[in-house]
Amino acid sequence: MSFADVRARRQAKDARSLVGSSSSSGPKLISIEPPEPLFGALPSSIDIQSSPERGRGIYAKEPLKRGGTVFSIKPPIYVLSTKNLEHFCSSCISPAPPTGLKRCTQCKNLWYCNATCQNNDWALHKKECAAMQRWAAGAPSLDVAIPAEPIRCLGRVLWGKRKWGLDSVWTREMDAMQSHRTSLPPEAAESHTHLAHAVIRYLGLTAPEELVPFGINDAAGIVDLISRFATNSITLTSPSLAPLGVSVSPLVALVNHSCDPNAVVVFPRSAKDPASQEPEAQLIAIRDISPGEEIFTSYIDTTLPRAHRQEALSATYNFSCGCGFCSRPPAPDPREALACPKTCGGACPFPSEEDPLTRCVNCKTAVASTDAVLDALRIGQEALQKATHLQFSDLPKAQQLTTNMIPILTSAKALPSSHPLLALTRLRQSLLLAAFPSNLTQDALDGLIRASSASVTGLNAVFPPGHPTRALALAELGKLLAVDEPEPRPAAPGSSVFPPSGPARLRLACETLIRARDELLISFGEHNDGGEVGREVREMVVRVERELAAWGQGVRNVIEDGAGLKT
Ligand SMILES: C[S@@+](CC[C@H](N)C(=O)[O-])C[C@H]1O[C@@H](n2cnc3c(N)ncnc32)[C@H](O)[C@@H]1O
């Protein structure tokens, strides 16, 4: 039977059910209810509008305060990435407690906190469970025995459409997400075709025609499904932004992109809501937003220079960004700048092959050896790609690459916020953390604090206060400064060695944690008390303040004892 035949049969069936049973007096007229409107979860402070440049988007109807939650929603579809399956509950995405998670006894792939979490997930896992067992039975090797997350995510979308009905609001919201089917570049069309075949196999279907009950009536419908997923899915993250999996929420997907966003989507884990609401995506304003203004998040890493951002946006989202930041970049952009050769405090835009001459925008001093700068930037980019690729398979090699490259870029006077120096610095910090010795030495701790501080300096130059990446980096630095020193150094009066030791270090830890907490309250929402990380930092501030007070009291006691001895 052809795809069209199946559709014709379905339409005939639909037509019969619409007019009801025919009688000799002819078909009865039936009243057709207007369809339920989409996005009923939209709060009254925002609405959906359309622009010719960006299509639909979310706009403020009322003033929105920075740190305020614009909306919260549990994504209707989400899956953990394969490596996280046994470490997090597949329903509420809580990390495994010390007592461990409970495994689905059927497929043996998904893990849950308890029976409640398993029941909450059963509506979608029921079909998935059988599909995963079928997939594993046909897998050529153990490492491909679990389908990759896009396949599992799309499986859930399709089972959801069947379960909740093709005319349901659930399905209509999913189908209303933007598809770029008609303008896909050839490479994307090819990868979409591969994914489509994998999904059909995962569902246990033998031919595309069998997708009709899932609301997919032709080949264009399959491409739409995959294109919608590619354009609208968002990373499911931990409260500290670690990627955990992938999620789809038609409401979150309405938010357009800017490289200088006024909002972020985070999963902060609010203290107040019960676990059954988790994972909860929250759109949070990181700036004050006026009525009529569009709300934007960023889809990509905005520490990257404009050309890299445009490439990423065009490859995945099929548009060229015309945000203020792309059309009128700051001069010079801290992502692409060198420090002034005369250290006047100004900066010079990066030279390029086409335009090798560059000067400080402040004192106009020209950079002398631009060839050396261009070489350093080129090999820096290569080292970054290699080290990123090797970070999990060859940690020492990745460490060596970042450790060797950072001084080369620094001596070429690249700003700490510039690319690829900032990316290498952040990678080095995460590699040092991964290799952190269990018997901690002062040198290892101080090295990590210096790397963390360099990341904070770079991120502060590219992100506004309250951006979650910046707030988390600050929290990380504060926590490291608060770690008990294995071998505190004797205080040298007037010493500017970084990091300081002893009480000066504790004071710096306290100041850094307080700044981090203020920023976390913005990025992860005041209503959430700064999310899980904000709450953790608040507790650390209390602990460090207590330690500082105890130290101060200790000093006062010594002084008083000394004074007592003299009298
Ligand atoms: C997640 S959707 C956002 C909602 C979408 N505008 C809609 O109407 O459904 C992502 C798509 O929106 C469009 N888009 C988002 N931000 C844009 C921007 N700054 N400029 C142009 N198009 C944008 C692109 O087509 C992109 O692939």
From TrEMBL:
Region (Disordered): 1-30
Biased composition regions of type Basic and acidic residues, renumbered to the chain: 1-16
Name listed for the protein in its UniProt record: SET domain-containing protein
Gene Ontology MF annotations: zinc ion binding
Alphabetical keyword list: Metal-binding, Zinc, Zinc-finger
Superkingdom of this protein's organism: Eukaryota
Keyword Transmembrane helix among record annotations: no
A single Gene Ontology CC term: nucleus
Record domain MYND-type: where: 89-129
Classification via PROSITE patterns: SET, ZF_MYND_2
Stretches assigned to the SET domain: 44-300
